[in-house]
Amino acid sequence: RAPKESEHAGDESPAESTRVQRLPLLQNEQSVTTKVPARLDQLPWSNWHVLVVIALGVTWLLDGLEVTIVGVLGAVLQDPLTLNLSAFQIGLVGTSYILGAVCGSLIFGFISDRVGRKKMYMVTPSIYLSATLLCAFTSSFWTLSLLRFVTGMGIGGEYAAMNSAIQELIPARVRGSVSLLINGSFWLGAAAGAGISLVLLNPVFFPIDWGWRLSFGLGAVLGIIILVLRRYLPESPRWLLTHGRVAEAEAIVKEIETQVYGPGVAVPEPDRSLVIHQRTDVSIREIASLLFVTYPKRAFLGLVLMVAQAFFYNAIFFTYAAVLHIFYGVPQDVVGLYLLPFAVGNFLGPVILGPLFDRWGRKLMICSTYTLSAVLLLVSGQLFIEGKLTAVTQTMMWSLIFFFSSPAASAAYLTVSEIFPMEIRALAIAVFYSIGTGIGGLSGPSLFGILLERSQEDKDPNHLNTGYIVGSSLMIFAAVVEAFLGINAEGKSLEDIAQPLSSDGIVVDHLKSVQETFGSDHEDSEDDFVLSARDFEQQAWSNAPRVKPNKVVPSEEKSVVIG
Question: How far from each other are the two terminal CA atoms of the chain, in whole angstroms?
């Protein structure tokens, strides 16, 4: 084996990488060598991958639908003919949903790493479906708040389990663009929610006490469709590997290859293998140590990206309706129409810019999208306080801003789902989602609510613009952190980005690699490959496969064993 030179600017130093903790092995330790990860990464794009994207990615669409419908329902639920809630109670219902999502992501993220992805991405939509359906029959503030909390738990659990499964099933070369596309589908749900609300909440079509109940029932119907689609998805082979179920992982990958290539078609054999040891589960203490001691730079990076995007996003999204109504005189019953171009910009951003995250690189694109989002919001805020915008031009500015900030926010989720070891991936996603939502997602709307109230009282938009400056500053700071600590994960296997805790690293078929380097004239005999150390050093070292050894050795002690 040869030492792997650092390929990622901002990665941990060699001294830091040696602190990776090996998990306790089982009493009768067994190790296996498998090519499952390499076989998954070399798969061509196929209908099977489309099924994965639709079945798992619909979570974000549901979340967008939920957030939008409940936001629009606020005014309806204050009507005496419905639940007769106060504005304060409406706010608490929204908070209950967010708190539920935070708790659900942590609980189900931890469980997902222990019992598997498939169980969780069947359980969590079932929880969502049941709670949402029951919301349609609620008759009081307390039951609605409780059910919204449970609904949030289902969605939060989906974030952890679904994002883990997506990363582990999608080929490395398109992992970034697919992930951003899926996260961007939130805004398809938001647009659908806005459109549906115009019909279901219109008293011309449905009585006022029926429309809001049907809105919740629609979410339950979509939940049933999710469960049907997910029955055809397998367990993550990568998860099976790290839990000693190698035969199952091999069988699943073979079945996937049959679906992708067709029956009887010869499948290319990759030259990269992974050595896996059976092990015990990771304890909470070990997880905390891995996140904040072994990978402190990556943890700080994930935290900053998540907090910045959560504050930036939620602050504007949860106040846009009030801004349009208070400063531009847009009637409340048509505010939903202004959400449609806003949602279009948010969705097109990941669709158009997403492929560049795989082509140009994570670091360049994350820095660019975070910075452009901040600069455009500063420009928009200045035009806002100078009174040079109308309701239409303000919405157009927001659409342009979120054309860049939508892929930026999605890239934060992509980052935390790539840069930590396989065994703690779901919980890592949950931890950073929870912290980001808790700090940025809850503080943003609260701060902007205060600033909006002061701007309304003083008739001075400068108060609100102060919040825009804070949000922009956070995004610029996140871009700087990414520039120094970001990891170029594009096109790389997950096992290359963060070595599994149960693995000794990647092993390369040296004979095959030498044949590819010097030609395959002697492919029948290893003995024919006789090279002096100096010849090999001079002719092949620069092209030799770089693999991670059991321990870090100085770069001048390079060596390769052949045959």
Answer: 12
From 246, 273, 277, select the one nearest 1 (Cα to Cα): 273
Long-range CB pairs of 91-97 (<8 Å, 24+ gap) are 92/141, 92/145, 93/141, 93/144, 93/145, 93/148, 94/70, 94/148, 95/442, 96/145, 96/146, 96/148, 96/149, 96/152, 97/66, 97/67, 97/70, 97/148, 97/149, 97/151, 97/152
Q: Which of 109, 177, 237, 285 is nearest to 495 (CA)?
A: 237
- Dihedral sign for Cα 179, 180, 183, 186, please: negative
Which positions ≥6 away from 408 have C-beta within 8 Å?
A: 309, 366, 369, 370, 373, 475
- Indicate if the pLDDT at residue 374 is higher than 90: yes
Given a contact cutoff of 8 angstroms between Cβ atoms, the answer to whether 179 and 410 are in contact is: yes
Spatial strand order in the sheet of 503-508: 31-34, 272-277, 503-508
pLDDT tens-digit map of 236-246: 999 998 888 88
Which helix (H) or strand (E) element contains residue 430? helix 425-436
Encode 143-209 in three state secondary structure: HHHHHHHHHHHHHHHHHHHHHHHHHHHCCHHHHHHHHHHHHHCHHHHHHHHHHHHHHHCCCCCCCHH
Q: Give CA–CA dist 121/230, Å, rounded.
A: 8
Token pair belonging to 500: 């599994």
Residues 6+ apart with CB under 8 A from 207: none
pTM exceeds 0.90, yes or no: no
Cα–Cα distances in angstroms (integers) from residue 137 to residues 71, 93, 131, 215, 462, in the given order: 19, 16, 10, 11, 43
Q: What is the three-class DSSP state of 530?
A: coil
Question: What number of other Cβ atoms are within 10 A of residue 308's Cβ?
Answer: 31
| Tens-digit pLDDT profile for residues 70-109 | 767 776 787 788 888 776 777 778 778 888 988 999 999 8
Residue 544 identity (one-letter amino acid)? A
SS3 category, 303 = helix
Tokens of 519: 């030609």
The answer, yes or no, to whether residue 530 has pLDDT greater than 50, is: no
